[in-house]
Amino acid sequence: MLKLTYTESSFYLEFLTLSLEEWVAQRVILALRVGQTLSVEPSTASFLLPVDLRGVEVLKAEVKRDDREIIALSVCDSEYVEVTLRGSWLSDGSEDAAGVFVTTMSDRAEFFLHKLWQEAQACTSVMSE
Predict the structure, then answer these.
(1) How many whole angstroms separate alpha carbon 54 and alpha carbon 108?
(2) Integer Cα distance of 14 and 114 in angstroms
């Protein structure tokens, strides 16, 4: 399972070994116990990866092989490719952009996408130094 945590200024991508159903059930139970409103709805999430990142071509091949259409790639410009995922958005129901997006694909695709995102983050932090 992939979990994207969105805040007002950024997001963080995690690869989790729990199934989507187990994780959502735990999150619902937590919300019930602490008296928090929880909204779960189908949604999409997108983020950018550098087009010259090693492995982007392999990701493109993986997307073509997956017929469930959970992941899509779109060229943004000469520097970036947009990764769009279908899944579920969990939030407190307010209109702000803070919340958690979860999705599930093959373990291989999830692991590989997470690795690419980590490499993109490492490249970004090196460039900003």
Answers:
(1) 17
(2) 7
End-to-end CA distance of the chain: 32
Tens-place pLDDT, residues 103-117: 998 888 898 899 999
SS3 117: helix
Question: Whole-angstrom Cα distance, residue 117 to residue 52?
Answer: 13
Place of tokens 């909204």: 39
**pLDDT for residue 43 is more than 90:** yes
Q: Residue 63 pairs with which residues in a beta bridge?
A: none
How many Å apart are CA 115 and CA 64, to the nearest integer?
A: 19
pLDDT digits (tens, 9 = 90+) for 45-97: 999 999 999 888 888 888 888 777 899 999 889 999 999 999 999 988 777 66
Which tokens is 48 given?
A: 């950018």
List the chain domain ranges.
2-128
Both tokens of residue 14? Answer: 């995690």
